[in-house]
Amino acid sequence: MVEYKDTLLMPKTDFPMRGGLPTKEPQIQAKWNEMDINKLVNERTKDRPHFVLHDGPPYANGDIHIGHALNKVIKDMINRHRSMTGFHVPYVPGWDTHGLPIEQALTNKGVNRKEMSVAQFRELCEKYAYEQIDNQREQFKRLGVRGDWENPYITLKPEFEARQIEVFGKMAEKGYIYKGLKPVYWSPSSESALAEAEIEYKDVKSPSIYVSFPIKDAKGVVPADAKFIIWTTTPWTLPANLGISVNPEFTYVVVAVEDKKFIIAKDLLENVANAIGWASYEVLQEVKGQELDRVVAKHPFYDRDSLVMVGEHVTAEAGTGCVHTAPGHGEDDFNIGKAYGLPVLSPVDNRGCYTAEAPGFEGIFYDAANKLVTEKLQEVDALEKLNFFTHSYPHDWRTKKPVIYRATPQWFASVEAFRDELLKAVEDTTFTPAWGETRLYNMIRDRGDWCISRQRAWGVPIPVFYAENGEEIITSETIAHVVQLFREHGSNIWFQKTAKELLPEGFTHPGSPNGEFTKENDIMDVWFDSGSSHQGVLVERGMKYPADLYLEGSDQYRGWFNSSLITSVAINGYAPYKGLLSHGFVLDGEGRKMSKSLGNVIIPQKVMDQYGADILRLWVASVDYTGDVRISMDMLKQVSEVYRKIRNTLRFLHGNVTDFNPATDRVAYEDLREMDQYMYMRMQDVLKAVRTAYDRYEFSAVYHTINNFVAIELSSFYLDIAKDVVYIEGVDNQDRRAMQTVMYDTLQMLLKVLTPIIPHTTEELWGYLGAEEASVQLTDFPEVDEKENFEQLRAKWSNVIAIRDEVLKALEEARNAKVIGKSLEAKLSVYADQEAVALLKDATIDFAQLSIVSQFVVAGTKDAAPENALVLEKTAIVVEKADGEKCERCWTISETVGSNAAHATLCARCGEVVEKYYQ
User: Which of 571, 537, 705, 666 is CA-nearest to residue 91?
Assistant: First the structure.
């Protein structure tokens, strides 16, 4: 005799319920490597329009951190999506390899660079860089990021360096490159100039001093015995003071305090009096700032003039309205000093120590000199007040130590020369998020010229020669020759050969009658390296230029986005990108910055070891990356629960279509039951929403749309109802095949649209489908299939679902009251208004099946409902025990149980199925 439980068509799948991702993912990645999935994908899509996301290079030093993971996974989701929606997407990952961190890392390992030549030290830097690349490459690949990992771009490679020199040469040819003496950010700890992008701000405690400058020549404007009072938080710059700046529009006052007279801005008088502690004062005279022009004061402790100058840069926000001016230590100071013909005095060396140009302070570190200068001022009775205050101050982003403004001869790229073109290029760019446009526009509008020289060893040399008379030599001939040398030998040849050997054979110059030449020793700012990548990668490899997208953290508006824009517009007149996308920083679960001291650092490798890369990728998809995002192990646990729901839903779908052949068993849409058509419509809605969200890079919308669809409309609705059909009916029953058709299409859709996010999981399940394609990555997203009756269906079924929701509420209350246990024990008597009654009697809808109850009776209109009915908005419902016996096979309670003598414990439906298919 047949066992009834063996006649049920239960789900059959070898796709495991548990992911086991930490173990399984490396196996899947090994398979991808073996089949060279990146090559297969690119071969499949080679004839399509190109989409190029140009990789911003991470720095080759240390393990990847969670910010790297966020960045690379977003890029990978975009690339995977584009390659499955009609584009050819060649992705070349890259690395930034020059600069101080690698020099510092070698020093920390005990390398003494002074014991070797520059060329030898650079060879060690290169070796170290490649070691770091190999380490990071494996970690990025472990995240499941697809790309040309065997042929990445690396900024130290000869072909890249050659392109970089070409960029420099073209900019020089247009007059955008010049050498100048002006104040730049200088890092004594790195002994090098820094770009603005290499600066970060930290709070420091600084002295706040008020200093009086006696008058040498009052020009008859103010009393000769009056003194100007300046305020500064950098006493160490006073040895470099050459002037005092006032605002021409301000009113200044001469005030008598006891037996002294001081000059300050009228609007700041009260503040200054309170700060210095004047018990009383008397205003003797008012004078316009313009009238003070070229009054001469005396330096407080040097026998030197301090010229009074007028400048719009002087504000009344703080201080005295009389600004201490040292042209060698400030941008505004430099500019006004230049206008007045003052020399540029910067008596501080590369290490931040005073030179002989600061008598009495020679060899002292600038920070230590704050105290000594203050003591000197007190000694000469020029110190009016000393306080301390905490404020934000620029620091070297690598060494984390303070920087100073210091005038040194440096190489600059002029921004002023083509600023309007840069701003136009910003306006022509698409930004995600939209506020990025304002941010970049303002940065370009307000930025000064770019200091591109660095006093380091590990970097691309500035390809400039000097004649015997000191004249700079940058010609198209010398640039072309250096480009060829670097392409053949790499930039280390610059440090291995003499200037003469590096110049074209037989090269002559009027400034070198004896044929002698020297070469520049400075290297380029590393932002010039990565900022030239549009040439070193896109042009060098024949890729699409400008790229469709640059994508990095929001700090790159002043970094890579900025430097790339400058170099591209300078040489070609347009931005290197059509679109810019930025993401925020990763914070801990409480919104704090991650740091070892707080113990809140989340390491990607540890997450992958515990949960798997797909969980980390799903977290990336779940957050709104346009702002700062949060992560914690608790959050990852919650994401893993969502993953489990998605995985088990995929498993359930697969288990129920293993006996379904779409080629022979598919039911045409017009032949589907209305409930199946509704579910097909909802699946198309989800597909449409997901495709739109992907196109807009809104991955959190993809995540939430799929999560809601899986949890609510599949698990809690359609798949729950489906069990009564796909388990119970005969294998080729029309209703069963109809539901399988929808399930199969839903499974295919979900597998494909989830591939950009959780590619290991979708690849694993794809392997169980017996599909023609060797990988789900070799397929495309399905196109949205809009049917004519969708709007009609949507309107009708919104009412059906509303009624079902009321039914579920009634069942829940009956369950709580112990009237029923499982919903199949219930008989429902439903009363409703006229419109709802008509819907309830619709023969195309099986409300008993929809509600998962044994009996569903449309009992009449709502006003005829008995007192024991639960009255709801659309319906009034009575829930009671169903009439009849429980069918042993389908568990429905039916009065037809026993009607088939051969199968006395089965209902009529199950008796027919068993007789037809199993006897």
Answer: 537
pLDDT, tens digit (0-9, with 9 covering 90-100), for 844-869: 899 999 999 999 999 989 889 999 99
User: What is the spatial distance between Cα 614 and Cα 635, in angstroms, rounded to a whole number?
Assistant: 14
In 777-825, the DSSP E strands lie at none
By the 8 A CB rule, do 524 and 452 touch? yes
> Which H or E run contains 332?
helix 331-339
For residue 825, the one-letter residue type is E
3-state secondary structure of 334: helix
CB 906 within 8 A of CB 888: yes
Count of Cβ atoms closer than 10 Å to residue 598 Cβ: 11
Query: How far are the Cα atoms of 352, 365, 393 from residue 104, in angstroms, in the given order?
Result: 19, 21, 23
β-strand 177-187 against 404-413: which pairing, if any?
antiparallel
Taking the C-alpha atoms of residue 793 and residue 788, their distance in angstroms, rounded to an integer, is: 10
Confidence band for 1, pLDDT divided at 50, 70 and 90? low
How far lies 832's CA from each of 354, 795, 819, 876, in Å?
Answer: 92, 18, 22, 6
Please choose, from the candidates 716, 893, 739, 736, the residue with its C-alpha nearest in 3D space to the C-alpha of residue 801.
716
The tokens of 789 are what?
């009756």
Tokens linked to 724: 């009564």
Instruction: Report H helices in 174-326.
Output: 269-276
Please tell me the distance from the alpha carbon of residue 146 to that of residue 125, in angstroms, as a whole number.
28
Distance CA(157)–CA(164), nearest Å, equals 11
Asked, as a colleague might, if the bond just before 433 is cis with ω within 30 of 0, I would say: yes
Q: What is the pLDDT of residue 50?
A: 97
Q: Which residues pair with 552 in a beta bridge?
A: 582
Rg, Å, the chain Cα set: 38
pLDDT tens-digit series, residues 750-782: 999 999 999 999 999 999 998 899 999 999 999
What is the distance between the alpha carbons of residues 773 and 756, in angstroms, rounded to a whole number?
A: 17
Surface-to-core class of residue 729, CB atoms within 10 Å of its CB (0-12 exposed, 13-18 middle, 19+ buried): buried
Query: Residue 461 has what DSSP assignment?
Result: B
How far apart (Å, rounded) are the C-alpha atoms in residues 277 and 274?
5
Q: How far, in Å, CA of 803 to CA of 253, rounded?
A: 82
Q: Which pLDDT band, with edges at 50, 70 and 90, does 164 fall under? A: very high
Residue with tokens 């005295």: 320
Question: For 217, left (φ over 0), alpha (ψ -120 to 50), or beta?
Answer: beta
Of the given ranges (129-138, 157-166, 238-247, 317-326), which has the lowest mean pLDDT? 317-326
Structure tokens at 537: 């990668």
pLDDT in tens, 495-534: 999 999 999 998 999 999 999 999 999 999 999 999 999 9
Spatial separation of the C-alpha atoms in residues 716 and 271, rounded to whole Å: 69
| SS3 state of residue 814 | helix
182, two tokens: 């002006």
Q: Which tens digits make up the pLDDT trace of 29-43?
A: 999 999 999 999 999
Asked if residues 71 and 552 have their Cβ atoms less than 8 Å apart, the reply is: yes
- Nearest residue to 631 via CA among 611, 645, 651: 611
Residue 362 in tokens: 């020679």
DSSP tag of 672: S
3-state secondary structure of 421: helix
Specify the amino acid at residue 768.
Answer: Y
Rounded to whole angstroms, the Cα distance separating 634 from 406 reads: 48
**Of 757, 749, 546, 498, the residue nearest 642 (C-alpha):** 757
Q: How many CB atoms lie within 10 A of CB 552?
A: 21
Rounded CA-CA distance 49/46 in Å is 8
Calculate the CA 817 to chain-centre distance: 53
Count helices and strands (H / E) in the chain: 30, 33
**Secondary structure, 3-state, 84-119:** CCCCECCCCCEEECCCHHHHHHHHHCCCCHHHCCHH
Distance of CA 122 to the CA centre of its chain: 32
Which residue matches tokens 């002994």?
A: 191
